[in-house]
Amino acid sequence: MSAPTQTPGLRYPSNKKTIYDRNLNRSKNAELSRAAFAYLFVEMISYAQKNVKDISALEKRLNTQGYPLGLRLLDLLLSRSPSPLSSIRPTRIITLLQFIGNTLWRHLFARAADALERSESDAGQYMIFDNDPMVNSYISLPREMRGFNAAAYVAGVIEGFCDGAGFATFKEEVLEREEILNRGGG
């Protein structure tokens, strides 16, 4: 008995590839248009603005919205890394911050952060610089909200990312652990 012939249709596409042959990471290179991003982000801000009395409460709410995304992005970016060595979770502060400034920033904004600096006044404070933050460029604010910074959402993403990596946003225990590792212990 001969095998039945396969004709193109729903079950067997004409190119002989099924859904199982597709690349699982195919959406990794897909980009969201800036207009779609602007629309979604402005809607997120207007949603966060409901029942908020002042700017600091609005920024806190945006920070809270970004936190769960940061928790999930760590696992996603590590699982998508091309080499086994780069898929290891960062265990040092500087390594984690470089990962955030390069890999996370590229994933979120399609480019690396402009600079990473350590504060001279506070040893536990680091600053990631973005000279042209996309989250602030599409927002028009009324005069009474002049001090509002929409990058609070990105700060929430970074906070979730750090917490997911085991760096509880640089609490004293994390800084003590880093000092011990710098001295060659542990």
From TrEMBL:
Pfam families in the cross-refs: TRAPP
KW Repeat (keyword) present: no
Primary subcellular site in the record, as a coarse category: endoplasmic reticulum
GO CC annotation: endoplasmic reticulum; TRAPPI protein complex; TRAPPII protein complex; TRAPPIII protein complex
GO biological process: endoplasmic reticulum to Golgi vesicle-mediated transport
Domain of life: Eukaryota
Signal peptide: none
Subcellular location: Endoplasmic reticulum; Golgi apparatus, cis-Golgi network
Protein keywords: Endoplasmic reticulum, ER-Golgi transport, Golgi apparatus, Transport
Family: Belongs to the TRAPP small subunits family. BET3 subfamily.
Cited function: Plays a key role in the late stages of endoplasmic reticulum to Golgi traffic.
Subunit note: Part of the multisubunit TRAPP (transport protein particle) complex.
Protein name per Swiss-Prot or TrEMBL: Trafficking protein particle complex subunit
Native source organism of the sequence: Lophiostoma macrostomum CBS 122681
